[in-house]
Amino acid sequence: MNPTLFALTAFIAWTLLLLVLMEAIRSKLVLTREVAPTGFTPDNAGLSPFMQRLARAHANCLEGLPVFGGLMLVALVSGNTAVTDPLAYVFLAARGLQSLIHLASVSATAITLRFTFFAVQMVIGVVWAWGLLAAA
């Protein structure tokens, strides 16, 4: 499996893992009658700060998947993974670290680090888009 295909698959799997974690915790809350089955909002408002951060981390992945995943898919379909392969693992690491920091803390330092890892992803996305357009 080349780096682009691995990064795309891992990005999808990471997004799914965050969803499974959130739904497992929500299920526990329902089963223990801490929250009614109808007591959830998409942003987990009214739940613990961790659950709210988990919802946002998952939403961040969902927001980025069409853009970054789309670029990786274009590279794979067009046979231009030479554009995306060199930074695929860097992208994946930045995506994972952004999510993990989001889950861990809302301190000023954490927010700065989280944005830094998001900025890395944006730069990589621009590089990929530029390279894929140039190869077209």
Automatic annotation (TrEMBL):
Membrane-traversing stretches: 6-25, 61-81, 115-135
Keyword Transmembrane: yes
UniProt-listed Pfam families: MAPEG
InterPro entries recorded: MAPEG-like_dom_sf, Membr-assoc_MAPEG
Subcellular location: Membrane
This protein's GO CC annotations: membrane
Keyword Transmembrane helix belongs to the record: yes
Keywords assigned: Membrane, Transmembrane, Transmembrane helix
Protein name in UniProt: MAPEG family protein
Lineage: Bacteria, Pseudomonadati, Pseudomonadota, Gammaproteobacteria, Lysobacterales
